[in-house]
Design brief:
Elements lengths: L9 H9 L9 E7 L5 E7 L5 E3 L2 E8 L3 H7 L11 E5 L2 E7 L4 E5 L2 H14 L8
Antiparallel strand pairs: 1-2, 1-4, 3-4, 5-6, 6-7
Length: 132
């Protein structure tokens, strides 16, 4: 399985960072910054933790690319008196339902993204706290 399917997307990683989730992970989203032009290009996912300068260009860590397992450590089995958080696989996609009472849900391509969306919902609604 490709690494991109085992970690949360760049957009969800940025959102988790914005919410103050501690940026410690096995993998990180990176961008390439050309010193001459100042142009930023998304470079992908790496295990590097710190910025690197290679051949006149910078490789800059954007946000932690949390794995399925890392995200799962923060997710509770359920939230008592507030409904159950549901995510499950249906064919090739994952379904995320954060409020079973309203039957509002989202479809995601990977389990990592389904878990990240669930965690974001829980943090934003103050239903769970994560290490910051």
């Amino acid at each position: 399985m490709e690494l991109e399917k085992q970690v949360c997307s760049l957009d969800l990683a940025k959102k988790l960072k914005e919410l103050g989730v501690k940026q410690e992970s096995l993998f990180y989203h990176w961008q390439f910054v050309n010193e001459d032009t100042g142009r930023n290009i998304y470079a992908g996912i790496s295990e590097w933790k710190r910025e690197r300068k290679i051949n006149g260009a910078y490789w800059v860590n954007i946000a932690s690319a949390f794995t399925v397992a890392e995200l799962g450590e923060w997710l509770p089995e359920n939230i008592l008196d507030k409904g159950t958080i549901v995510y499950y696989k249906d064919g090739e996609q994952w379904y995320v339902e954060t409020n079973p009472v309203s039957n509002v849900g989202l479809w995601e391509d990977t389990e990592a993204n389904a878990r990240a969306i669930t965690l974001i919902y829980l943090i934003e609604n103050k239903l769970v706290e994560v290490e910051r």
